[in-house]
Amino acid sequence: MHAEERVKDHFDLDKQLEAQRVTWAVLHTVAPRVRTGHRLADLHQLLAEAMAEHHVEKAWHPPQLRLGPSTRCPFGTPAVSDDPLREDDIFFCDLGLIVDGYEGDCGETFTLGRDPEMQRIAADAKRLHGEGLAHWRATQCTGEVLYAWARERAHALGWTLALTKGDGHRIGDLPHHRFFTGNLAGRAYTPMAHRWIFEVQLWDAAGRFGAFYEDMLR
Q: Can the peptide bond before residue 175 be classed as cis, meaning omega within 30 degrees of 0?
């Protein structure tokens, strides 16, 4: 274990995995309820309801709920529009929830309607993430090499890999930043499983929208 991957003495992997499972469950409760005409405030309300249903009270990072053109925005930046979702549109949810003292973190992109490019970028974000995990497992590559590979693969798929605040990060028992606050893309060693979130954010060339997918290295 690299020093940047340390956890507290009482770290329980089963609890870490459960936090991730519950965070995905909340996300997949919210997404099917999103409809044409919903605005950002509506998604926040849906999230609050879903968290209550799954008995989750707190988050360790603010939810990133992105609609339409705001799907290109880096983490933590304001939305570029509060327009309601259209019949053919795109959105993503990035949730970082606290479950029994552990940090869950996941993100996925969804589409409404039948816009083929929106559907393609959403599918490719998830695809590239899965291929990246497979590449890391097979090669035991460093964080630097993983993201260099992901940049080239995104280009081959016809997209730009956006790395501003979307370049991976630590995760663990609360708070992980006690040990490390930097990114995965800058790590010159092989990252271990269950300590890192691998993020993929893609942009289309015309600047209209993006897509996001993230999950734990495992």
A: yes
